[in-house]
Specification:
By secondary structure, this protein is of the alpha+beta class. It contains 17 helices and 21 strands. Bound molecules: adenosine-5'-diphosphate (ADP) and magnesium ion.
Amino acid sequence: MMGNNQPIYILKEGTTREKGRGAQSNNIMAARAVADAVRSTLGPRGMDKMLVDSMGDVVITNDGVTILKEIDIEHPAAKMVVEVAKTQDQEVGDGTTSAVVIAGELLHKAEDLVGDLHPTIITSGYRMAAEKAIEILNAMATEVSMKDDKLLRIIANTSITGKAAALNRDLLTDVAVKAVKAVAETNEAGKVTVDRDDIQVVKKTGGSVDNTTLVQGIIVDKERVHSGMPLSVKNAKIALLNVALEIKKPEVDAKITISDPSRLQNFLDQEESYLRGLVDQVVKSGANVVFCQKGIDDLAQHFLAKKGIYAVRRVKKSDMEKLEKATGATIVNNLDELTKEDLGKAGSVEERTFGSDQFTFVTECKNPKAVSILLRGGTEHVVDEIERVLEDALRVVGVALEDGKVVAGGGAPEIEVALQLRKYAASVGGRQQLAIEAFAGAVEIIPRTLAENAGLDAINMLVDLRSAHEKGRKTHGLNVFDGKVVDMVKEGVIEPLRVKTQALKSATEVAQMILRIDDVIAAKAAPPAPPGGGAGGMSGMGGMGGMPGMM
Ligand code: ADP
Ligand code: MG
């Protein structure tokens, strides 16, 4: 045993290593398993998933990225595919399932090729194909702008179709389009930007989804500080204060000794007149509503109430910033500087009660640059899923406006890309041709899955789709409800171009990355922390690797 043939260990005991085809096919299998996990949710006739975590909490969703975030995935290659969904979510908001399904299929097709082609040929073919595909998509895209209300609604509608929220599609579409248009900003060059943070979504369980409303202003999760204040103020003139309406506390410990009772009264009077002075400054500015980021002293509350001013204290900084955008006010850091010009305007400021919670509604703002959506729904699960669907709708409308480009959906772009890529492959020739053809076949997974999930014959549908596209009908896709190949533009199924290009980009990147791996070296998983502290106590054991009798 201990002779010249002693093996040389360069890895810590417990490290596992897998090389070559075995490593590759393991990674591909894991990545495909992730894609399979979400495939059945794709499209308007996809089904939802119910996920139960270790604490018994339930999430019901149709959203690809949510499903993958909720389930605990361990395999490193599988995790890379989950990242594709997350990137898609960040960049576009919608199309997360599609991106993951395409990534899985790119790997599936590559698996068939690895016997004949070196992985680097496959990856370079995939890269060429992806670049070409994006060109093809760009050439197919048509324009959309702020004026095209109808088209924007169609885009929102497409992202909502087939989700739990579809019953309230018209309402949600309306809310999403109006909200995004309100906060969209166009610069001199005509470039539109939509900051999603300018749309506040407030969830409140109760009522029904029908009660969901768009508020031309901001909802602050706070009540007025004093019951003597008015419940509502019309024609509100709003001061946003980042100063406390309180007596300043000394920085160091200080003690005041008062020997004469009359001096005590004098002292209290001074405090009172100081606070009265602060409130007078607010009154002088003409404000009838105050949002204060800091505290408001009881006495100051009383004075404000007497003047009929509605005041809220300890408002979050983020809410203050939204109030600034919605009402046109300026946040003031020093009361001496508060003037009429700093005040914002709102048609109404009002306290409303939902169940046991009070909110302050700042509504009827003129041209608010920040708006709110009050989401209602019968149960928590409903409200949560509606929020996810609404999020997708808000993002697709925003992305469509930012880029100004849209394409038809329902598998139309994927079939067109596949058709043109096959022609391109023939022109490239050589070994890469096979990889480009494989890529073309892989993107067809979208119409194929749309058909399968609708219980249609996928092969027949693909044949019909291809023949329509060969006749030049670039926007023909699958009507999943009656199994006919029709013009998706007429059908009202339209998506932002970025949903498609981003999905292809990230799916290709992850497929390339996984295909290039031929060696997986994994450290032994760290043992779970022993109960009751002593963190990492066992990890030293790994160092005893060479000792006999350890097995
Ligand atoms: P993703 O997470 O990828 O957005 P979805 O479940 O939202 O997954 O499905 C999106 C796919 O469904 C897209 O390919 C889109 O074009 C397609 N789709 C949406 N509405 C329709 C429709 N009415 N008919 C056919 N396909 C549709
Ligand atoms: Mg979608």
